[in-house]
Design a protein that fits this description.
Elements (H helix, E strand, L loop, with lengths): L3 H28 L4 H11 L8 H14 L12 E2 L3 E5 L2 E13 L9 E12 L5 E2 L4 E6 L4 E2 L1 E2 L11 E2 L4 E9 L7 E6 L7 E5 L4
Parallel strand pairs: 1-12
Antiparallel strand pairs: 2-3, 3-4, 4-10, 5-9, 6-7, 6-11, 8-10, 11-12
Length: 207
């Protein structure tokens, strides 16, 4: 009987060792069922792009918006008035183009261009009941179907608006723009500032 005890213990130890080996194998298979192929799958998921817009997409959208709102171009073409119209820029304030004269401008300041030009006299009438500030008044001109901005020739005959105009009075400003003789039509944009509406006069001036 004593000689059989060690042999049975050997059998038990062998069985335990076999169970341990099988358990380890099962654990390894469960943790990595597809081997190297599964590692490749994980890397693909990690590289998937986010559903939000990338920086390049945002820049492209911003670029298209800025092209729609091109700088230096007047807007609201359907609201443009004729060159002889009287515009109301704010309650009690009216403006019109009193004169448009063809001149030969002489450039003397950097950026100016001499040659055929228009001297545009803008008349503003104040009936607000108080003094009207004209210090922020701006006049711009454009010409041709492409609405090309006209270059101001401030050194040759330009007389800006006075700082203000009293109630019941009118004030003039003369603005000279280099505009080719063949350019048609002409647009004049007036902004008196202080919340006044920007008005656009459009037409074909007589030269």
């Amino acid at each position: 009987m004593l000689s059989q005890v060690p042999r049975s213990r050997m059998y038990v130890a062998a069985a335990v060792a076999a169970v341990v080996l099988v358990s380890v194998a099962v654990v390894l298979i469960v943790r990595n069922p597809s081997g190297p192929a599964n590692a490749g799958s994980d890397s693909t998921v990690a590289a998937a792009p986010s559903p939000t817009a990338t920086p390049s997409e945002k820049e492209s959208t911003s670029s298209s918006d800025s092209e729609d709102d091109e700088a230096g171009k007047p807007s609201d073409d359907n609201r443009a008035l004729g060159l002889k119209a009287v515009a109301t820029t704010s309650p009690g304030v009216t403006a019109r183009l009193a004169r448009i004269d063809s001149v030969q401008a002489t450039a003397s300041l950097p950026g100016e261009i001499g040659g055929p030009a228009l001297a545009i006299t803008v008349k503003v009438k104040n009936q607000t009941g108080k003094k009207l500030d004209l210090g922020l008044g701006v006049v711009n001109a454009y010409y041709g179907p492409e609405r090309t901005p006209a270059v101001s020739v401030a050194s040759d005959g330009e007389v800006p608006f006075p700082a203000s105009v009293a109630d019941g009075e009118s004030a003039n400003g003369v603005y000279v723009f280099q505009i080719p003789e063949e350019a048609r039509p002409v647009r004049v944009e007036l902004d008196l500032g202080n919340g006044a509406d920007v008005v656009v006069f459009k037409g074909r001036p007589q030269r």
